[in-house]
Specification:
With about 450 residues, this protein is an alpha/beta fold. Helices cover about 50% and strands about 15% of the residues. It has four domains: about 5-135, Orthogonal Bundle (N-utilizing Substance Protein B Homolog, Chain A); about 140-175, no CATH class; about 180-240, Alpha-Beta Plaits, CATH 3.30.70.1170; about 240-445, Rossmann fold, CATH 3.40.50. The radius of gyration is 24 Å and the shape is globular. The N and C termini lie far apart (about 75 Å).
């Protein structure tokens, strides 16, 4: 019996992610580019992959609970078939249980052996009958309960509980398992937000203004939007509002010289150019040539001409740039724990014993890049994580050890209620509280 193309594609992607260490966003993009797949198939594949990765720990707990075969003896292909099948049964109301079971059995027939077929069939039918009675009441420890219930590694849950308490942590874990809004940034070099919203709505997209930024638009049904002529002709950039706010807090002006030391893939870089009205100079750096090509191609699509790209090791000071910049953005490599809604595989690969080494690199990049700021200029540090050792601890250490810099008040750059959460010089954003990606943004000024 033929297997379902969408489910088989999702299975191959899951195998690459779970068994071969592929990045979810890259693996999904590579596979759904197949022209034989319909738009509905592409959406279903993404749903299956991201959902199964997101709920992997809970799915494995269910498998252990119901399986007659020891977990470690289940082959990787069959294990991923089971995860995907249980995800459909437990979390996808729109998929009939019979389809979830039968299509999983078909995959087991192709990717397993004869025993695998009966094993998958029996296990999934049993779970289908009992899915409404699955609960976690037998788990007593809070960190283990939240770990299993919301599918997050126990060390991460333990750390979040210590930092933020039970209620906030549970809200955060819940939101991490949800799908984020699809947000775009209007390119005001080519159109206005009102014109773009009208244009989108005329084409059948449901679009509304964003939560915070004057240049943000949320699109409820974005299928096919990034393949449209609106995107191809540079009328918008896909970008979350947290990322936009980092640039708005930096406040670049027309005619300025700006340096973005870790610029790829270029979303923030192009927003700087937009706010600068494509007047001035932006020096965009990154360590890999192929990533700098992304920045350049993005700039060309958006009609931006003031971005110059450089191959740079951000941890080392580039003498040519010393004290030349009015604004410097230091968007450092980080654990990514603020964007688990978008990249759920991050939570399965994060190594907490390496965070101290990561924060040392972040500090080194910040210190090296600070040399580029003119007296009176602005230095912005940002990450997409919610870990204090990568955020507050790094910038506080920097300001204490570099007396030429001081924290600047950022409230005047923040919209509405976000001012309530701003500290002196910085803000930590959370997906559960603020409805956008978890980001840290700090603004510092070099004393004249």
């Amino acid at each position: 019996m033929a297997v379902d193309k969408a489910r088989e594609t999702a299975l191959k992607i899951l195998y690459e992610i779970n068994e071969q260490g592929a990045y979810s966003n890259i693996a999904v993009k590579d596979h759904i580019s197949d022209e034989k797949l319909s738009g509905i198939d592409r959406a279903f594949i993404s749903e299956l992959v991201y959902g199964t990765i997101c709920w992997k720990l809970t799915l494995d707990w269910i498998i252990r609970k119901y399986s007659t075969v020891k977990f470690r003896k289940i082959s990787p292909w069959v294990l991923n078939i089971l995860r995907m099948g249980i995800y459909q049964l437990v979390y996808l109301d729109k998929v009939p249980p019979s389809a979830a079971v039968n299509e999983s059995v078909n995959l087991a027939r192709k990717y397993g052996h004869k025993g695998s077929v009966s094993f998958v069939n029996g296990l999934l039918r049993n779970i289908a009958r009992q899915k409404d009675s699955i609960n976690f009441s037998g788990i007593k420890d809070t960190d283990e309960l939240l770990s299993v219930k919301y599918s997050h590694p126990q060390p991460l849950v333990r750390k979040l509980l210590k930092l933020y308490g039970r209620d906030f942590t549970e809200q955060l874990l819940m939101v991490n398992n949800s799908s984020p809004e699809f947000t775009i940034r209007v390119n005001t070099l080519k159109t206005t937000r009102e014109e773009l919203i009208n244009n989108l709505n005329e084409r059948g997209y449901k679009s509304v203004m964003g939560k915070y930024s004057n240049n943000a638009i949320q699109v409820e049904n974005p299928g096919g939007l990034v393949d449209s002529d609106l995107h191809r002709n540079g009328f918008f950039q896909v970008q979350d509002e947290s990322s936009m706010l980092a640039v708005e807090i930096m406040d670049p002006k027309p005619g300025m010289t700006v340096i973005d030391v870790c610029s790829a893939p270029g979303g923030k870089t192009s927003y700087m150019a937009q706010l600068m009205e494509n007047k001035g100079f932006i020096h965009a750096g990154d360590i890999y040539p192929h990533r700098m090509e992304l920045v350049q191609k993005n700039a060309e699509r958006l009609g931006i001409t003031i971005i110059n790209t450089y191959l740079l090791d951000a941890a080392k000071t580039f003498d040519k740039f010393v004290e030349t910049a009015d604004r410097v953005l230091v968007d450092v490599p980080c654990s990514g724990l603020g964007i688990l809604r978008r990249k759920p595989d991050i939570k399965w690969t994060v190594e907490f014993d390496r965070l101290s080494g990561l924060s040392e690199l972040q500090y080194q990049i910040l210190k090296s890049s600070s040399a580029y700021v003119k007296p009176g200029g602005v230095l912005v540090y940002s990450t997409c994580t919610i870990m204090p050792e990568e955020n507050q601890q790094v910038v506080k250490k920097f300001v204490s050890e570099n007396q030429g810099f001081e924290f600047d008040d950022i409230k005047k750059f923040l919209p509405g209620k976000l001012t309530n959460y701003a500290e002196k010089g910085y803000i930590q954003l959370f997906p559960n509280r603020d409805g956008i990606d978890g980001f840290f943004i700090c603004r510092m000024v070099k004393k004249s």
